[in-house]
Amino acid sequence: MLDASPGVSRGELKETELPNGIRVLTERIAGVRSVSVGVWIRQGSAHEPLERRGESHLLEHMVFKGTERRGPRQIAMALERLGGSLDAFTSREHTSFQARVLSEHLPEALDVLADLVRSPLLREEDLELEREVVLEEISAMEDTPDDIAFETHAEALWDGHPYGWCILGTRDTVGSIGVPTLRDLHDRRYRRGQLLVAGAGYLEHDRFVEEVRRGFEGVVGGSAPTVPAVSLETPPREAREERPGAQVHLLFGSRTPGRGDSSRFPLILLSSALGGGMGSRLFQRVREEMGLAYTVYSFQSFYSLAGVAGVYVGTRPEWGGRAVDAVRAEYRRLAYEGLPADELREVKNQVKGQVMLSLESTSARLFRLAGMALYDEPRRTLDELLQRVEGVTAQEVAEVAARYFDPDRQTVLRMGPA
What we know:
Blueprint: E1 8-10, E2 13-17, E3 23-28, E4 34-41, H1 55-62, H2 72-80, E5 85-90, E6 95-102, H3 106-118, H4 124-142, H5 145-158, H6 171-176, H7 179-191, E7 195-201, H8 205-215, E8 237-242, E9 248-256, H9 264-275, H10 281-289, E10 295-302, E11 307-315, H11 320-337, H12 341-358, H13 362-374, H14 382-390, H15 394-404, E12 411-416
Parallel strand pairs: 3-7, 8-12
Antiparallel strand pairs: 1-2, 2-3, 4-6, 4-7, 5-6, 9-11, 9-12, 10-11
Helix pairs in contact: 1-7, 3-8, 9-12, 9-15, 10-11, 11-15, 12-14
């Protein structure tokens, strides 16, 4: 039997690295009867060559078409018959498979996840069917105006970098990917890549590690794929996309540092103050005072090398100019004034409350646990995370606002009727 390194413990957060390089993390949560468990593979759309965009997402779909031990219906029913759930997603930098079950069914959940990751059949006849499913997914995105607006804005913002590519790929690239390509990707990343397995809920760390060791025995450690270098210093751009519809979709955004940078927490507070709820500056100004939009909010994403902070507004075409001016004015106030002490106190309380409320589910705890490991962050307890938010100073906020919320630094997209 393989030997594992001694578990590293930090309160209820524990980690063990198996000899084959798989990292195993758990968080035991008292007072629940369920467990959320997931497997993360370091492979996403940002690691793909231009001509094979969408291969990571297509492979994620294909593993559900059958394994050496289970057919597609058996995969679908394996945990549903127990009252559990099974899901997967592909992101810019990772592919993940997750399950949520009663704690007594944790061995079954880990067995299904290990089977999916290790032993998909990847057959030609299945690819022809699943390719059509993905093409329908692309069609659904294209028929959803705000979805296509976000994709178009990302392309403009990242200007050719893979962070701006659609995770689904294109019709041409998805249509050209064959089984040999998917098998090669699976062999390089799922069998010889960097894998992480995490669980949160009612579980015991040592027993969890033993189940993972059994399920993933034979997987060989490997190196992580790399993301092309990216600059944070980009000139502002204005893009227009003519598209029929009743609204013009307005997107603003700028590149920010990645998840591990110290500016992440000031950025979170600034984004929340700008458009993070009904009391935010943009909601009050654009919707309540000016009546220009039903939907207006800020957004942000953090990747390993960079991130994005931005704003979305949907409004009538004839009001687009006024909405742009209003958003730019709020950007300018933040960039030149930062946040006054009373507003900074309020937004800290808001963010801390949102964090605490969001982490009342085992699934949210699972994603937080995995995120810390995937991005090599310090493993903070909830109290330490809240202290980090509380410790952000007005000076830090002002410096970050001046750098990333300057209205003249934004990439702006206007998509809608001429």
